[in-house]
């Protein structure tokens, strides 16, 4: 069933403005070209991201798309398009930086997916995003609505070469359960910036998984807020940066409702000269958010000399009436004790190294819940290790 109209929903939740969260706005004039001195841009190599900061439309040529989108959805999923200003487009996501604003203004028709109320999807909804040309821009907006008490998994799979701007707007309504997986397995010449914004309603559950292995530069914002008590969010990520690659993940969990929960766990590995990862996590616990539970962690394995991992956890607490809150960050080489344990039992040092890294990643990968995706990602980690 295909639809082009959508029901009206409530306006976006109250936004936060600070040095970590510049004023969100659809107006491009509110998002000037960054200089690199801004807190939210200081880790990003601006020269390499410059093509994504220019005001350009999607550059298709004679029927050949800059990026091709192929949807595979089980029966019962409704799909269609939303013009700018047509609800529910723009009711959850307000652009937080220039790339997000450019993605919205440069996309005439957003792709819209709706999981009907009370529906449980036995098979994942899959969207293949295939870049065709590293010199052409693609501006994309996706809106996903999980109606009350529905259950589904959505997988976005990015491959090929592109200059990709992409906003993903996710509305998880009362009692719904939604898992969203975004795989960035781009070719080495791709630059990709995006904003993923989710709103989690009362007693709803949302799991977000970011997997970043490919691309020259990938810079993604993942933000979650709540619309009522009892909402839960899990944000997981794995990334593997090779020589010269820049992978940047920025996360914000806004506990703006009481009795909500969140868990953030991102893990990365780096190898090769100038491999660079950036992880910035921020959790805000507002005054009204009594009884919440939250924890965020980021772990990085530096496999070779010349690689660099920046990790910045933040926790802002406006009320002491909480069940628990914390954060942690670690960056280092292999666990020497693990390596000693394995080699002392006759395991070859190279194989021991592989086992340690696989164990580091597999704990997250197995939480996705889609067997073929998990097997592919395990194989991808194996391939990355073969480059060391």
Number of helices: 5
Terminal-residue CA separation: 48 Å
The average pLDDT is: 91
Give the beta-strand count: 16
Give a quick account of the main beta sheet: strands, pairing sense, barrel closure.
16 strands, mixed
How would the global form be characterised? globular
Runs in which pLDDT lies below 50 for 5 or more consecutive residues are: 1-13
How many separate structural domains? 2
Computed structural class:
mainly beta
% residues in beta strands: 35-45%
- Helix share of residues? 10-25%
Tell me the Rg in angstroms: 20 Å
Order of helices and strands: HEEHEEEEEEEEEEEEEEHHH
Family: Belongs to the iron-sulfur cluster assembly SufBD family.
Organism: Propioniciclava soli
Domain SUF system FeS cluster assembly SufBD core: 138-360
InterPro entries: Fe-S_cluster_assembly_SufBD (IPR055346), SUF_FeS_clus_asmbl_SufBD_core (IPR000825), SUF_FeS_clus_asmbl_SufBD_sf (IPR037284), SUF_FeS_clus_asmbl_SufD (IPR011542)
Q: Which key features would you list for this structure?
A:
388 residues; mainly beta; 2 domains; 16-stranded mixed β-sheet; 16 strands; 13% helix; 43% strand; SUF_FeS_clus_asmbl_SufD; Fe-S cluster assembly protein SufD
